Structures are given as structure tokens and as C-alpha cells.
């Protein structure tokens, strides 16, 4: 007899498509997971989706399903360019919003766009352009100039404007006259030291969902997917925010084959906030495009230096024959060692740092960057943590790579592992079924 599955959530990756099956209700259950190669390069991502569904049927038996939602990082993911006024102010705020939405930022500019900037934008062919600049009732000229230059490119790319409130009508006219879609949201930096990234983050995801079907190989995706499609890193962030509202301050790490993502949802401590140079958003994501255990494994190998040879006498052979999914025990140990270096470097880049200088009144302390000292939970998601033994220990030793000045989570922070590998899927689910998504991810953690 065929099973009835309430909902499937597909994760369409750059190389692999995963389909997760759930039964919803007051006591939701994760049924199983199917996988197949992503077929975006074949011109039809549905081939991979059907393959993943068939793989799931091989595991759990035949079934019918009522609904399918999805997240995607295929077809280059969400490629964006970000343009603002002052790098440490409006540009930084816009960047935080884009990264939090799950974007792959290809270009960031501050001030007026130059000819070389415009050439780069044409070459990048972004999915979305984010235009900011000027606090409310402050500088108007730069954002208007940039808007006109972007409109002249005639890229047929949606533009989100999140800058000075006084420019809204003018920006709308500029892009409407050029026949280009424009979306107006609240300023990401409305006043000095005031970040307002959430409206922009949410709009980026809405625009992505509308336009993902035009990406190469994705045109038929709506034939199978009945609901939302959001960027995969944005889905992880949605789940992190959902968890924060239930269990408190947290950090989530995903060490992948090509990148390492770190998400944190925390306001930090009151004490640190008083000496922080620049404001930080509640929800922050950093993505390290040079740290991955397969595609970028050579980078990690080089970062390890001579130490890797002390651990593995045949390190050269292992790095030259590295596989996306290690099978032998020594291969698994080697990948975990590379993952430990990815974790060390990624967390160091994500975390803020306590610094000081000597002034007229003596030594003065200040903080730049993210304060993680109030984090109560450290979450591991992705294949390294769900499919390899030893991933949990990496997170328990997260402070080992610091010098003592980094604002890392305290030793009292507890480690949670997404054993079912469903954090992104639960982030997608949370948009429509938040209560069920929360129960499912907590079940995956075993709490």
C-alpha cells in the first residue's frame, strides 16, 4: 500500500539534489531522505528532483505526496551585487542583509560607480542588484547617480532599493523608465549606528523566488515544486532565527565541499555592546568561499602547513585523491582534519575581537565585529557533522584556535548536531509551518 507523505522539501544543490519527506501535524515526523545528482546542467533540474524522489522510494517504499517546497543553490545560487555610499556604514548594512538572505555576493562597491565597476556588473550577470546609500534625509546624490548608471546598463535584472527614504520616488522613476523591475524597502541604515536589515533580507528572498525559475536549467522547477523556493543558505538562517526565538542565542556552522558558512543569532552581551565600534545585526552570516573540504581542499591543506604531515605521513597522496564522499577510515580522518582547519579559520573570521589603544586617559578597550560571548548553543549542520563520526568534537574545541582576544562562545555553550541533515529543509518549512519545523529540527538535535 502506498504511503501518504504530507510534504517533501527539496534541497537543490550545485552537485546534489536532496529530497526530505515529512508527515506534519501535532507530532511531526521526518520519514527519510533521497538523493540524486543535480541536473541543472542538463537543462532541466526536474530530472534530478525525480531521481531523488525515486531514491527516497527505494528507501521507504512507494508513496504519494501533497506538497513540495524547495531551497536552491544551483545555477550559481543567488548571485548579487551590492552598492552603497560609505563602506563601513550603508555598504556594510546592505552586505549583511544580502548575506543573511543567502546571497552569493559577487561585487561590493562604495561611492559612485566607476566605469570598471559597471563592466564587472555586466560580466557577473547578477540575479539581483541591491542599491543602498545615505541615511534617511542625508546624502541623495550618490544613490541617484548609481541608479541612473545601473539603469543605463539595461540588464533586465531586478533592483532592490534600500537607501535614503528621500530618493524613493526618483529611484522608482529611473528604473521604471528603463523598463526594469524595482522594489523599494526600508533603509538598511536609516541613521548612524542603526542597522535595519530584516526588510531587505525578506525582500531579497521574495525576489529570488520569483526569478529563480529563469535561471539556466530551472525553468521547469515549478512543475514539481508547489510552494516557496528560497536560497539554501537563507533557509539555514530562517531555521536559526526560528531556533533563537525558542532556545536563545546560537551559532550554526556548515562546512561544505566548496564553502564554510557560519550563522549566528545573538545580540551579544550588554558589556561588549558598550564598547563595540560598529553595530551588528541580530542575525549574521559569513560565507568563506575559500574554505571547503572538497572543491577547496587544497586551500585548507596549505593552511594546515607542516602539521598535517605529522598526522598523516601520506598526506600528499590523500589530498591528491580526495573524494566528495570519503569511504575509508583514513580518508574520513583526513577530511575531518581539513574540516577542523576550516572551522578554526571560519569562526575566527566570523567572531569579533577585543582590541585596545593608548589615549590621553590611558588604555582604552574597544570591540570590532561579532560578539559571540552570549551564545548558548553551537550547532553543526551538513555532511561533516551528520555523516562523519567526530564532527561533534570539533565544535566542542571551538575555542582552541583563538588567541584569547576573540569574542568566541563560552566553554559552557552546548553542542547540537543536525543528525538528520534537515536544517535547511526546516528553514523552508518554517515559512509556512513554523511549529512543525521547530519540533522537527529539535528532534534532529535530540532535544
Automatic annotation (TrEMBL):
Name of the protein in its database record: DNA mismatch repair protein MutL
